[in-house]
Amino acid sequence: MAEPLLDIRGLKTWFKTDDGMVRAVDGVSLSIDRGETLGVVGESGCGKTVTARSVLKLIDMPPGRFEAGQILWQGRDLIPLDETEMNKIRAREIAIIFQEPMTSLNPVYTVGDQIAEVIELHQKLSRKQAMVGAADMLKLVNIPNPERRVHDYPHQFSGGMRQRVMIAMALSCQPKLLIADEPTTALDVTIQAQILELMQEMKERFGMAIMLITHAMGVVAETTQRVVVMYAGKVVEEAPVGALFGDPRHPYTQGLIRSIPRVDRSAGRQARLESIPGTVPSLLNPPPGCRFAARCRYVMPACTQAIPPLKEVAPGHKVACIL
Amino acid sequence: MSRQYIIRKILIMIPSLLGISLVLFTVLAMAPGDPFEELATNPAIPPEVRAALRAKFGLDDPVWTRYLHWLVAMIQGDWGFSFVSRMDVDKLILQRLPVTLIVIGSSQIIAILVALPVGVLAATRPYSLFDQVANTLAFVGFSLPTFFTGLLFILVFSIQLDWLPFVYRANIDATGWQFYWEHIKQSIMPVMVLGLFQGASLVRFVRSSVLDVIKLDYVTTARSKGIGERKVITKHVVRNALIPVVTLVALQLPIVFGGAIVTEQIFRVPGIGSLLISSMLSNDTPVVMAVTFVIACLVVFFNLLADIIYGWLDPRISYR
Q: Are residues B218 and B130 in contact, defined by beta-carbon separation less than 8 angstroms?
């Protein structure tokens, strides 16, 4: 089998706080192949964002630190690399876009300036050429009047347009992997669809891989090939998208899928939307055993004894549950 | 930045200066004290002469006519006549103003030059040794009033070490480099006392402002571009962090002038501050009025400057 593009092995990103060690990411393993779209799902606070930021080492250290694990980028571990080496990978090979388009752009520089900054640095172009490149990128992400708009400031763009600018910036060096950290969460529904469509289009054009982090199961179903479900800093299930929706094995995944609103079912009968009872456990000194045990409807004594390992139940379908 | 923005800001200055002058004039007119008080105790001058003098200078007119007279004269360039110094007020002020401007200007420049790098460095390494030392020194710096540090400096540098003169002399009988060197030497202490006091509070302000900005999303975006931490800080953090700092510097300016008055007294700097105090003591109303008005003009002018810098730093402001 070919070497995966990105291979995270047993990653533990912990944060030291006054109350103790917060195990935000606690032994996560996942891999992404070239040109693949991997969905990473889970509710707020399950460690999705920390995993994503760990890949680019955008975690503040201290208080954060890599406790264990490897982040293999095309076979090379990123964790021991220094800032200079990381800066050659950032934007050029792995780019990231964030959840909040309203705050991810610097308000005091024009969008052209912010895109050109990346192009200038990584493609070794002059400022002028980089600005032309920035306008080309804006055109590519369907921003009207790109030659004029490059000179506009972020506050002159709407939320959806700013996310397009972020995508243009991220893709300006044609990275091999785009990490999209909840790129559509802050946008309204029609804009969400446009942004997802744009990402799909860009993916086909540049042939990059996407790590799509989201908590919207609908988005996952539409855009990804493979899905990793995270819960409380751990991977609980990993499966091809069809298998995950067709045959979810982990009770948490089942709960997530049941909580998707279904227009066809609730019509007329006003059925209540199902939710998973309880909240995510504290990542500060988590209890032994399965972390979902407290909220699981099938819980049994063995669940609280030891953490169930990920085991393969079908080709490419792994689940961390003793059931 | 649009030219409209600057013109609008300049036009706003006119009503504020008119308002300030009206308030100043009224308050001074209501204040007790008579510039010809001295004459009253002089037996050689009969009361009729005093009354004639009062009438000549219009001191018995109602406040608003006197204000209008003053305003019209002011606009025509006639700043009035000092009762005590027996010379035109504008000449008197022009003699004193440059010294004050040099002392305040260089102390502000020193404050900013020290506070910016120290504050930024401290914020990028929060709770490091550097941060702790900078914070402690800053705390000491702005807890000590200028009249205390001024005396301390005089004790140490003039009396103990005998490096610097502690009385500021306007008439230095030297030429060429010697002249400038003497001037620099006697300015060092007042400039340092004022500059360190200003710089100390600025350090803490810059630090907290940078700390606020450094957590924002666009800084993470900038880091993800691979442009290097140094450029992230200098390009993406500092410019945004400076916006509130500019406001603070502009707002503190009246306090700086107040501090300068005290410092000028300590070091006997023949500046506008000592002129203000001596003219107040001798009830020299035209001079008091003119000096306070000049200080008000300077404050308004520096606020205009701050507004312009503001608009340049943050395009969202000047576009509105």
A: no
